[in-house]
Amino acid sequence: MSRHRTRATVLSSLLMGLGQIYNKQYMKGALMMAFEAASVMYFILNLGYAFWGIVTLGETPRTAANMQPGQYDHSIFILIQSLITILYLIVFLVVYYFNIRDARKIGAQRDEGRPVHNFRQSVRYVLDYKFAQAFLSIPAMGILFFTIMPIIFMVMIAFTNYSAPNHIPPGKLVDWVGFETFKNLLALKTWSHTFYGVLTWTIIWAILSTVTTYFGGLLVALLINQKGIRFKGFWRTILILPYAIPQLISLLVMRNMFNGEFGPINQYLGYFGLSGLPWLTDPFWAKVTVIIVNMWVGIPVSMLLIMGVLTTIPRDMYEAAEVDGASGYQKFRIITLPMILFTTAPTLIAQFAGNINNFNMIFLLTGGDPVKGDYQYAGATDLLVTWLYKLTLNQNRYNMASAVGIIIFLIIASFSIYNYRRTKSFKEEDMIQ
Amino acid sequence: MNFKKSFRKALLLVAVLTLTASMTACGTKSSTGGGEGANTPAPSNAANNKENTTAVQDGELVPEEGAELLVWESREEVPFTEEIARQFEEKYGVKVKIEEVATTDQVGKLTTDGPSGLGADVIIIPHDHLGNAAASGLILANDVFAEDTKKNNTEASIIGATFEETLYGYPRAAETTALFYNKSLVPEAPESFEDLIEFGKTFTDKSKKKYALMWEAGNMYFNYPFIASGGGYLYGDNGTNKDDIGLAHEGVAESMKVYQSLAEILPIKSGDINPDIKRGLFGAGDVAMDINGPWEVAGYKEALGDNLAIAPVPTVNGKPAITFSGIKIYTVSSFAKYPNAAKLYAQFATTKEAQLLLNEKIGSVPTNLEALETDQIKNDPIVSGFAEQAKNSEPMPSIPEMANVWAPVNAAMADIWDNKTDPKAAMEKAITQIKDLNNGLAAE
């Protein structure tokens, strides 16, 4: 008794909408056929070109003989066009699958002798019961073509040789090189030395900057919350100020303040008879400087966060501790610190991930300098992300930049996933006892 | 309830329509299937036609029907370009639109914007970017006006505007570095760096923030005399041979020693010197001398007035200091819809009159031979100071590999200056790095 079901399925697999028409859903079938006709038309025009393009990335560079648009291949444009066509092919196949499923379902309904929806009823059904899915398919398409497609494109760049000086379209073509870019980055001495150097500093920076701002903020928050401190509002305001000034302004000012020769900081040191330090010109001291300035910018954020947490700690815990004769330090170690750490751990990890990519701090304060002679386009304080910026915007080595970008993504994604899983488990956990 | 339903329906319908529209919009690209066919009719390229090249005389070239031009110009020179664009429109009836783009960014921007049809038709670039632009086929040769250009401009500017035997550029102005000095502090410019150091010992006082000479010690552009005067060079064969890097010759170590000895009268880390700080100190009379280029003239003149004077860079070990010369050149984009109009514009903006206008507005040094002979230029002490230095200048190499030189040599300079490294060793390290970059170890 599955005659209709089988037939409808087979017919729909042959041609979109045929099974629906067989199921006497003429309107729906016609719409699907129209969709297929339009898509097939588009594929006839573009699909061959797309596959040719994604495999070869173009064959004819632009020379003096073929300067007009259409006479030459621009590898990067071809890559994007091919991607769009192939993504549309995937969308088409998904729709095709649903059309077969639909024909099969309706056929089964007919086998069981149940009535079949007419077109009006189908539309009504979709609007009443599948409204969310129907409507969300539009933004989903948008996300596919405006978010996912560019990301795929940028990942693909890492597997090509799209870089200055020898592979920049339209005068030159771009080719697939597989994992060679990654191999160069991780194994070839000219690049790997820079990469590991910058990576090491990035990790050191992320750890130090996160720890210093967090514990600095903790210290300040505890100080302000002490009994007997007056003008709490005033202190809080003063400490929030660095956070309130845009970094673009404050960091560029800092850059001048820390100037080894003409900066006010070294001049003050000079008044006390101390010789100034090479704040921004010595590789080691430049690193110290960015950490210090980052503390100045970052402590207010942690302070606010921790102040909020402090207000949630029940007072009776402290009272009970006092009854048991605990000293101030013991109260801090046994009650305050665990409570704060427990609540803010996810934020701490998020801050760590954010600091790995703290572009502003480095770019505005040191610009990655002081220059290191044995690095490729990077300086002593460059993080991976500022190095990526230099590779892309100053050197046009897009493939290297893309590879570095993928590596940054892997690092940050792993932290974020860990963090996310933590928070979920944390939701189900009981309070510490 | 009913209204709600119909509203939802309408919403869905709109959404579906938008989707189909956007899908078809994504996919209306005429396939070229391997780069043939689907040609747009090419605009008549009378000028590109080999037979016509010789026949077309100056003035015979006419702009295409309905031509419009887009040109890029750096911020400082926009007033000049506005004036030129107005005159050009009066003469030829072609509208010229101006967009502000820094000269050093224009080749990069044309690489990305040209193919998408958003690039300028005429760009103005420092000539060391020429090799990159020409090698990637971004620009058209200067063919129609080649005779004119070669006849009317200085030899150095023609070398700068040429890449691999082909003339691409239309030279507009020459730039080189020279010694700026404050006459109230240094009545006579020192002849040699030895004299300068003697003077420096009397003037430099670190505690009072007074320095005899301050310049960007960590930037190769300003330090070229310490390479070239000792017989060094960046690339051999007049800057065309990428495998012959002359940074570590015996003479270079000698002249770099002079560079190193200057730290005595400028006891500052190279990283602490930046143009802003220097500008402030020079304007306030705390710095007596600076090695700099013509773009700084307007600002310094405002600060010092008649006390500002320009002299050639002092001699290095008794040899005249050889500075870099940069030529600002117009080139015509190969993506230009109206190449004839674009070529006409590039020619129009580099005539004697145009270069004199630019000098009037900005204080530039012309490349046009007749313009250099006019009273306006001859009586301008600033320009004649630069012109004096320009006699001992070498054009920057314009091959694409030029881009690989800056970072390694700047790092070496900082090393030699700050850490008192042996010049020869530092330069040899730089050479290794440049060669690595040139041989594509890093590029492939």
**Average predicted local confidence, pLDDT of chain A:** 89
> Which class of secondary structure composition applies to the elements of chain B?
alpha/beta
**Quaternary structure type:** heterodimer
Q: Identify the most extensive interface between protein chains.
A: A-B, 75 and 74 residues
How much helicity do the residues of chain A have? Answer: over 70%
How much of the residues of chain A is beta strand, in percent? under 5%
Number of DSSP E strands of chain B: 13
Q: Globular, elongated, flat, extended or rod-shaped: what is the shape of chain A?
A: flat
Mean pLDDT of chain B: 84
What is the makeup of the main sheet of chain A?
none
Uncertain segments of chain B: 19-58
Number of helices of chain B: 20
Share in β-strands of chain B: 5-15%
- Separation of termini of chain B? 65 Å
> Structural class, judged by helices and strands of chain A?
mainly alpha
Helix fraction bin of chain B: 40-55%
Number of strands of chain A: 0
Evaluate the radius of gyration of chain B. Answer: 26 Å
Cα gyration radius of chain A (Å): 31 Å
Low-confidence stretches of chain A: none
Distance between the termini of chain A: 64 Å
GO biological process, one term (chain A): maltodextrin transmembrane transport
GO cellular component, one term (chain A): maltose transport complex
Organism (chain A): Paenibacillus woosongensis
Subcellular location (chain A): Cell membrane
